[in-house]
Design a protein that fits this description.
- Among the domains are: 78 residues, Serine Threonine Protein Phosphatase 5, Tetratricopeptide repeat, CATH 1.25.40; 54 residues, no CATH class; 165 residues, Glutaredoxin (3-Layer(aba) Sandwich), CATH 3.40.30.
- The radius of gyration is 36 Å and the shape is elongated.
- It is an alpha/beta fold.
- Strand 1 and strand 2 form a beta hairpin.
- The protein has 22 helices and seven strands.
- The chain has a seven-stranded mixed β-sheet, with helices on one face.
Length: 514
């Protein structure tokens, strides 16, 4: 019987070349792993070194080391976030914003809130207030409990003129009593600028109880400004500047108060002071640009108007002024107060100064248009426009009657003085009787070389009141007795070219009727 024999196991011959290759690959893997560990160790060491430089205040060195870490490992969220912080501390906000944005793409949710606050702060410090507001608004919708972020958002709204949003944000956070003076300060500002002066006064009183401060004086001055008590506003703003000249928007509002008193040059300097510290202050950009454009300095005005539009894209006044400047025109002026255009001009009869007889407005009815200029020698706005008014008189006096209606002094001695009058040494006692008022009118005509005649309003000021002529104003009354032009004589209110256009229009009507 044949017995089957088991076969020996087959012999497997591994080719030597493959065997060598396998050993070589294994060695390569081990080498690469070792290199990776070494590289990771080197990256960690670089990061640790960057942290040490960061903490020691060597920002340039820290930035260099953080960049080296990211060059080796672009996924290091911690290095990128810290690099953003370093760049922000160095004032390189555009680069910081780029790093924060990149970090947020890969950051875990737990770290996202802190990073977004830092991003918003970088926007804020680089004067990109709209972007800061938008980032903080998204953050507030998700994490409204963060007080610092909320306060920063409120400040963004305040800077952008969004006062109702400030009130909505901060009213729930207003404890009583409170050691946080920033909340009543911002709320007071928002209420006053929104026209709710009584509510703003309540917050002002709370701040003033803690003693004299720049914030309290700023609030007080803003209330005066809104109430059109310009002399009190100027004094309160000046005191606030003494206490803290760097308070945001303070110099800007001081400039607006100075502008309202006729001191455009001092106002322009205040606006420049504000822009030196806060280039994105809307009011400083817009008001300074308006002064420059009104003086036909369009090249200097254009970048300021462009910035104003960037800061407040929805501001129609800034867009209109920018459009005008691009066309080589001054800012559009608006008629405020006085007798409305199209209404019948109030009749009056006044004594001429230095001439026989009396001026009766009715005498010109049906004959010719009349330019009525209301002013006094102590009004800086009137003095500043005297040359332009003389030029219009020289050009049109054969066809249009011109008359200065001399009214009570804008800044008489013993009352508040404008900063411009103080610099120019102009002072005048209030008229005690009609004879003294005629004397003041004579001084005005001589000093300013006014070439058209003056009629003197009575001590009762009836004509001044009827026309709302104080402190100064210009009207054009048509030949049919209606108001065809009405402007205050302020730096930004009156444009001689507009008055001339109104005169030419009235004269063309008369020609057409013949």
């Amino acid at each position: 019987m044949n017995r089957s024999r088991s076969l020996p196991p087959p012999k497997f011959h591994f080719p030597k070349r493959l065997l060598h290759l396998a050993f070589a690959c294994a060695g390569l893997v081990m080498l690469l792993t070792a290199l990776a560990w070494a590289q990771a160790s080197q990256v960690d060491q670089s990061f640790t070194h960057a942290l040490e430089l960061h903490r020691s205040g060597d920002l340039k060195g820290a930035a260099r080391e953080y960049r080296a870490v990211l060059a080796a490992d672009p996924t290091r969220v911690d290095a990128r976030s810290n690099l953003g912080a370093v760049l922000a501390n160095m004032g390189r906000y555009a680069e910081a914003i780029e790093q924060y944005r990149l970090t947020l793409r890969a950051a875990p949710p737990a770290a996202a809130v802190h990073l977004r606050v830092n991003l918003a702060l970088a926007y804020y410090k680089s004067f990109q207030i709209v972007e800061a507001r938008d980032e903080l608004s998204r953050l507030y919708a998700e994490h409204s409990a963060d007080l610092n972020a909320t306060m920063l958002l409120a400040d963004c709204h305040l800077r952008l003129g969004e006062y109702k949003q400030v009130i909505e944000l901060l009213t729930p956070l207003e404890p009583e009593p409170s050691n946080n003076r920033a909340i009543p300060y911002m709320l007071g500002m928002a209420y006053i600028r929104d026209g709710q002066v009584a509510a703003g006064q309540q917050r002002l009183d709370r701040i003033l109880r803690d003693g004299d401060s720049a914030e309290g004086r700023f609030l007080l001055a803003t209330g005066f400004l809104m109430a059109k008590d310009f002399p009190s506003a100027v004094k309160a703003f000046a005191r606030a500047i003494e206490l803290n000249p760097n308070l945001p928007s303070l110099q800007s509002f001081y400039g607006m108060a100075l502008l309202a008193t006729g001191d455009a040059d001092a106002a322009a300097q205040a606006f420049r002071n504000e822009l030196a510290a806060n280039p994105n202050d809307y009011d400083a950009n817009f008001q300074l640009a308006s002064i420059l454009a009104h003086r036909r300095q369009f090249e200097a005005a254009l970048p300021l108007l462009g910035r104003a539009v960037e800061v407040r894209p929805g501001a129609a006044e800034a867009r209109a002024a920018l459009s005008n400047a691009l066309q080589g025109k001054g800012p559009p002026s608006v008629s405020t107060g006085g007798v409305r255009i199209g209404a019948m001009a109030p009749g009056f009869t006044l004594a001429w100064h230095g001439l026989p007889g009396r001026m009766a407005l009715s005498e010109f009815r049906g004959r010719k248009p009349v330019v009525l200029v209301f002013g006094s020698y102590t009004c800086p706005n009137f003095r500043s426009q005297a040359g332009a008014l003389n030029a219009l008189y020289d050009k049109y006096h054969d066809q249009v009657a011109f008359a200065l209606i001399y009214i009570r002094e804008a800044h008489s001695a013993g009352q508040w003085q404008s900063t411009m009058n103080e610099r120019e040494g102009i002072t005048m006692q209030p008229a005690r009787d009609i004879s003294e008022k005629h004397g003041h009118a004579g001084v005005c005509l001589r000093k300013l070389k006014i070439r058209f005649p003056a009629a003197v309003d009575g001590l009762d000021g009836k004509v001044e009141t009827a026309y709302e002529g104080w402190p100064s104003r210009a009207y054009l009354v048509s030949a049919d007795g209606r108001i065809a032009f009405n402007r205050r004589l302020g730096e930004l209110d009156f444009d001689p070219a507009e008055l001339e256009a109104a005169i030419r229009k009235e004269l063309s009507k008369r020609v057409a009727r013949r």
